Amino acid sequence: MEAIQHAALTLAEKAGFEQVTTEMIAAEAGISPRTFFNYFPFKEAAFIPARIVLPEEDRRRFCEARGTVAEDLLQLMEAARPNLPQNREMLRMCKLIASENSRLMAMNFDFLREVEEQLTQLFHARGGHVGGARASLMAALTTAAIRNAFERWIDGEGETPEEMTAANIAVLAPIFEGSAEELAAAE
């Protein structure tokens, strides 16, 4: 899949996104057009980084955990690590091409909304003082922290996106760990 995506990005960098066809991508990747569609449902999907997959067992563990929200969130992100894109150059190319195409930008936004919705559900399911508006705000902040970490990493900061995410979550920890009275007042 990465070879197909690399072919798509290389072609778009040379010829422009609009000029690239699925047939061109397949030829560049050394596969048939039919094989392309086994991996991507349409051309634009080859220009979007892999989805963040939060394994079900780790989602359950997060909901049942009793550590600090920030610590447990970092464990959840660590569990997702094998599914996260790690090729900085490919992500840089995705970001550049998406910045020039409104459909790709919208797809990236939809992807981030999916992450935020997953996190909102997890914060709700965690129970205790994390519910209602607070759960959705915590999910929005976490999603922004992840996005910011990846964008900064893509732009050359830090050793890994996980390192950058951990630093951002550490900044949010005091907000996540407010006293029960403060949390109840915020609802």
TrEMBL record:
The keyword Transmembrane helix does not apply. Residues 21-40 bind DNA. The keyword Transcription applies. It comes from the Bacteria. One of its GO terms (molecular function) is transcription cis-regulatory region binding. Keywords: DNA-binding, Transcription, Transcription regulation. Residues 1-58 form the HTH tetR-type domain. PANTHER family: HTH-TYPE TRANSCRIPTIONAL REGULATOR RUTR, MYCOFACTOCIN BIOSYNTHESIS TRANSCRIPTIONAL REGULATOR MFTR-RELATED. This is TetR family transcriptional regulator. The lineage of its organism: Bacteria, Pseudomonadati, Pseudomonadota, Alphaproteobacteria, Rhodobacterales.
